[in-house]
Amino acid sequence: MRLAGSLLLLVLSFGSASAETLVTSLSSHRVLINSNYTGTSIALFGAIERDAQTISRGTGYDAVVTVRGPPQYLVVREKERFGPLWLNREQQKFPNAPAYLSVLSSQPISEITSDQLRQRQKIGLRAIINSPDFTNDRKGADEPFREALLRLKKQEGLYVEDDRAVAFLTPTIFKANIPLAPTAPPGNYDVEVTLLADTVILARTLTHFELVKTGFEQQVGEAAHDWSWLYGFSTASLALLFGWIANVIFRRD
Amino acid sequence: MQIYLPIAEMPVSVLLILGMGAAVGFISGLFGIGGGFLMTPLLIFLGIPPAVAVATQSAQIVASSTTSVLNALRRNALDLKLGGVLVAGGFVGSALGVWFFAAARRAGQLDLVIVVSYVTLFMVVGSLMLKESVREFWTKRRGGVVRVKRQAGEHAPYLFWPMRMRFYRSKLYASVIPILGFALFVGFVGALLGIGGGFIMVPALLYIFRVPTSIVVGTSQFQIVCTTLVSLVLHAVANQAVDIVLAMLLIAGGVFGAQFGARAGRNLRAELFRFLLALLLLAVGIRFSLELVLTPNEIFSITTQEMRT
């Protein structure tokens, strides 16, 4: 049913969109984490190509950039009063939530899309969070947990919605800055760019970038994972060594 | 100045971590406790994943306790024989604690078990010590006779159980059974709560086994080094949660702090020492119980579960 819906929409959008093609490029496909990494931002450039058959549009183009970080298994718990105590009672699992999620657009999402389109195509933070496959549906009981996830992740700067982050340099060329919080984890990030005009999707592109540890950080990560016994013993011996050194340095009596 | 932690996968301020290490190290050196119960909540508060916080701070405990043990050895303030018995009991207790940890997690009640154990332990141990030290203060102030320690026939009956052993340094001649049993309990709680257990060890050695204060700190630190070394390696192997960069920063701050703490501890009168430790434990206990009782600002919380790959 949903598949049919999106197919129909796809056909419709291609039908009406005659011949716009979207070309996007990231400033970097491999973002390196070194020892003084404190978050970064990645630039995305997009160009809209029109050919002779393209109809002229009364309204300008709009672009929505959706960035999804590596998936995480998240559990949101709710505290409830139990006698005099506050205890974790109910919980809701989000088995496939992105660790990082940002939706950047040139105008507020609600102004450039219809409700139906947003829900069906998962455009905008709220539409993604509220989509049926984001967590199991418990007939409304899941709503506060979805809200809480969004609120807490926004506070951490890991879920971002910015309706001014995409800027059109010319009517057919745009630029967006993807902000990466320092706590955004290493992994693969998907960047989906949707081109709209007059609440209709004209084109979509999907590209990726990778956030990776390099040099010392990478080696430590690999050692901890692949040589865990050696890693554990060397940390332990370093700790003993430091303790001994401090004892020698401070020996006065 | 920020530095990126390769295992915690986030940047932290170098000066902040050094300062925290020094502050906790000072307290650790002063009281002869590991300080894990202070460091773990602080690290989690900074946003470091709980598994990494618990695993990594054990490296700092090893380093600062090593310094204290070496100091105690030099001043001959360490009972190796008593320490050995405590370590033996502690290992068995740790194994049981790890098993119970897994069982409680399967039952879905781990969080509750941990917070309730924290509150009970800290409140009970803290108030017992506070009561004791306040009474001591009063007796002194009124000019009364301070109870003479270790009079003949004053020992508790459990010290006369079979398998008695002589601990010369601690001026203790007692059955091994209650000592082993107690060490087992400390190991159990330590593994369950991810702490060294020094804060239970110190008052128990003082009050239950009447070990002289000067010996208590060194011996307790010796037990802490041994059990924490084992748990550090196990954490590294089982969870890969030990962040070596964070560990080195905490250690660098911690060893300095511990050194000054140990020095300050030597100038502290015994009653004052007990009084301050009691206050510290009570404060932590109250903090945890407030968390349990007060209406939280945010009733929702997110936890990340390990992805089974």
TrEMBL record, chain A:
<feature type="signal peptide">
    <location>
        <begin position="1"/>
        <end position="19"/>
    </location>
</feature>
<dbReference type="InterPro" id="IPR019088">
    <property type="entry name" value="CHP02186-rel_TM"/>
</dbReference>
<keyword id="KW-0812">Transmembrane</keyword>
<dbReference type="Pfam" id="PF09608">
    <property type="entry name" value="Alph_Pro_TM"/>
</dbReference>
<feature type="transmembrane region" description="Helical">
    <location>
        <begin position="229"/>
        <end position="250"/>
    </location>
</feature>
<keyword id="KW-1133">Transmembrane helix</keyword>
<keyword id="KW-0732">Signal</keyword>
<protein>
    <recommendedName>
        <fullName>TIGR02186 family protein</fullName>
    </recommendedName>
</protein>
<keyword id="KW-0472">Membrane</keyword>
Automatic annotation (TrEMBL), chain B:
<feature type="transmembrane region" description="Helical">
    <location>
        <begin position="44"/>
        <end position="70"/>
    </location>
</feature>
<feature type="transmembrane region" description="Helical">
    <location>
        <begin position="110"/>
        <end position="130"/>
    </location>
</feature>
<feature type="transmembrane region" description="Helical">
    <location>
        <begin position="214"/>
        <end position="234"/>
    </location>
</feature>
<feature type="transmembrane region" description="Helical">
    <location>
        <begin position="12"/>
        <end position="38"/>
    </location>
</feature>
<protein>
    <recommendedName>
        <fullName>Probable membrane transporter protein</fullName>
    </recommendedName>
</protein>
<dbReference type="InterPro" id="IPR002781">
    <property type="entry name" value="TM_pro_TauE-like"/>
</dbReference>
<dbReference type="GO" id="GO:0005886">
    <property type="term" value="C:plasma membrane"/>
</dbReference>
<keyword id="KW-0472">Membrane</keyword>
<keyword id="KW-1133">Transmembrane helix</keyword>
<keyword id="KW-0812">Transmembrane</keyword>
<dbReference type="Pfam" id="PF01925">
    <property type="entry name" value="TauE"/>
</dbReference>
<comment type="similarity">
    <text>Belongs to the 4-toluene sulfonate uptake permease (TSUP) (TC 2.A.102) family.</text>
</comment>
<feature type="transmembrane region" description="Helical">
    <location>
        <begin position="172"/>
        <end position="202"/>
    </location>
</feature>
<feature type="transmembrane region" description="Helical">
    <location>
        <begin position="241"/>
        <end position="260"/>
    </location>
</feature>
<keyword id="KW-1003">Cell membrane</keyword>
<feature type="transmembrane region" description="Helical">
    <location>
        <begin position="272"/>
        <end position="290"/>
    </location>
</feature>
<feature type="transmembrane region" description="Helical">
    <location>
        <begin position="82"/>
        <end position="104"/>
    </location>
</feature>
<dbReference type="InterPro" id="IPR051598">
    <property type="entry name" value="TSUP/Inactive_protease-like"/>
</dbReference>
